[in-house]
Amino acid sequence: MRGGGLLFLALALALAACGVAGHGVHPLSRIAVHRARVALDASAAVRASPKLLGSRGEDTHWVTVDFAVPHASDDDWIGVFSPSEFNASTCPDSKRSGQIPGPEICSAPIKYQLANYSSGYAQSGKGTLKFQLINQRQDFSFGLFSGGFSNPTLVAVSNKIAFANPKAPVYPRLALGKTWNEMTVTWTSGYDSSEASPIVEWGMEGSPPARTTADTATFGRERLCGEPANTVGWRDPGFIHTAFLKNLRPDKAYHYKIGHTLHNGKVTWGKPKSFKAAPYPGQRSLQRVVIFGDLGKAERDGSNEYQNFQPASRNTTDAVIRDLDNTDVVFHIGDISYANGYLSQWDQFTQQVEPITSRVPYMLASGNHERDFPNSGSFYNGTDSGGECGVPAATMYYVPTENRANYWYVADYGMFRFCVADSEHDWREGTEQYSFIEHCLATVDRAKQPWLIFTAHRVLGYSSGFYYSFNGAFGEPMGRQSLEPLWQRYQVDMAFYGHYHQYERTCPVHQEKCVQEGTVHVVVGGAGAYMSNFTTVAPPWSMYRDMDYGFGKLTASNETTLQFEYRRSRDGQVYDSFTVHKDNQNV
Fold it and tell me: Terminal CA-to-CA distance of the chain, rounded, Å?
């Protein structure tokens, strides 16, 4: 490729790095924390109640915040801060010497609401708001700010409130292990392993429970690679524990609970949960897989200008929860929490999806909003991760990778093999990831696992998204160039992607033509973040397009028939479906 061709490729990669699929602006990034001033007004007040949260073991609690100011303005707002102390003394460089003054506030709130959400505030200067808080290991306080988001001035601070046990083990999340008969349990707590031993008590009904000790991990500010993650977005992640439950019996129900054994022998337990073990490779049984990308999080209390950033995240989460009795495993293929460097949002995401992750394996792929940052080793040099560079995602959630820095892995589930790629690292021929992808596809025993699925976050296959039409490839630049020969050679049944916020399904396609033995490519990036546009005219290989929020579901019960459904999040109903048929000779 010469001259203009090289320039075009550079432009295409630059546009891709900038998040051209349309990912919006994080609500917390609108607050100019570096400009914040502290000017407490004795005639202004904020009061939060109750002071003690979770006294009955709850992980969430509704809080009432009453506030008053002598002169109300439409741009006044209430911010929730945790830890409760958020003045200049808590800044990393607060003890530095020198004449240059530091910031007066150096941490972003974990959420906010506009004061005028309270009816009559503009006229009376008095208001009441409701916030839903979750257990995030630290206490809370509420700040009343004037000056809007651009020039915030703190005029009043509330009393402190806290959960009864802020260190409690919370938000369990299951994942498949490196072997089919292993399940992993990951959770978050405030207990370092030197303070209390993390354990999982588990077993089948009617059998004596076993106890398995968990590994413990965390990370510091220094491991993050840029702003806001290592500045105003930083929040201590607590301790993340992972236990490996081995030698499970296929398709059997297990109960479990997470906990910590204190030095005095007392155990602090989480809530009891249950899961079903995976089927063995080749087992012919009903196997159902939900798959989507770009979910993000949404506040149930209206905070952070709900509906402006991830409009459908809550709807999709609730729709999956409603159908959880008919779901065996979930794949969330990138753009997970959209924390974008505001680390408090990871806790809030894990709490939102906990009804799912505590019952079925929740498998992740890495997206641009987890990994990308300039000069950090990612394939794209965009800033979409907000300086996280994959560290929170790789620590908060377990996936069965050989190297946690490389987010590609194999997941075997009954009749399925999933080859999960990492589109934020180089996948082209000659790279380590290319070798992994080929090995994953080549080593599956199709007699046992007839259904071979490829997944990645970015569209390495086919999409008629509006941006992708500019580069002429109708997909990620250079995506199919290396990978399409592998999909064809190893007869990949389906490939799934996120990144573009819409739903699209192709025919069985190879080299832009519908063929009998091609791969069906599906974009399921419409789980939460706002919609992306299609091209005006659909290409011949595009069979169905929908600019609405939804998710996909695969169902297999034998080696010859695989059903796929696309469901909209608003009602959980099926709006597109198709069936892949094989004869026994092909299997």
Answer: 41
